């Protein structure tokens, strides 16, 4: 599954266009390597996402094409959240 679609389906980022923009600005890494919006995501991958002053590290637990709002959090687990000053 594409990175931008995973971020939208998992509701880590609400819109696919925003996910694409963030990924294409080198603010997302998969397993320590820079990732573009078209990068394929697999179960077990670690995503490091930099939002403004916050960095989130999450592990991909499951891949689905669609989810309901209450199921979205099952697709990933948050390993770490850091606030940058």
UniProtKB/TrEMBL annotation:
Belongs to the RqcP family. SUPFAM superfamilies: Alpha-L RNA-binding motif. Key component of the ribosome quality control system (RQC), a ribosome-associated complex that mediates the extraction of incompletely synthesized nascent chains from stalled ribosomes and their subsequent degradation. RqcH recruits Ala-charged tRNA, and with RqcP directs the elongation of stalled nascent chains on 50S ribosomal subunits, leading to non-templated C-terminal alanine extensions (Ala tail). The Ala tail promotes nascent chain degradation. RqcP is associated with the translocation-like movement of the peptidyl-tRNA from the A-site into the P-site. GO terms for biological process: rescue of stalled ribosome. InterPro entries: RqcP, S4_RNA-bd, S4_RNA-bd_sf. It comes from the Bacteria. CDD domains: S4 (cd00165). The lineage of its organism: Bacteria, Bacillati, Bacillota, Bacilli, Lactobacillales. One of its GO terms (molecular function) is tRNA binding. Associates with stalled 50S ribosomal subunits. Binds to RqcH, 23S rRNA and the P-site tRNA. Does not require RqcH for association with 50S subunits. It holds the Pfam family S4. Keywords: Protein biosynthesis, RNA-binding, rRNA-binding, tRNA-binding. This is RQC P-site tRNA stabilizing factor. Residues 1-61 form the RNA-binding S4 domain. It comes from Marinilactibacillus psychrotolerans.
């Amino acid at each position: 599954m594409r990175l931008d679609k995973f971020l939208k389906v998992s509701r880590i980022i609400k819109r696919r266009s925003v996910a694409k923009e963030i990924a294409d600005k080198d603010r997302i890494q998969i397993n320590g390597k820079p990732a573009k919006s078209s990068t394929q995501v697999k179960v077990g991958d670690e995503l490091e996402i930099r939002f403004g002053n916050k960095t989130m590290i999450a592990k991909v637990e499951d891949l689905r094409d669609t989810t309901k709002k209450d199921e979205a959090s099952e697709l990933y687990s948050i390993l770490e959240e850091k606030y940058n000053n």
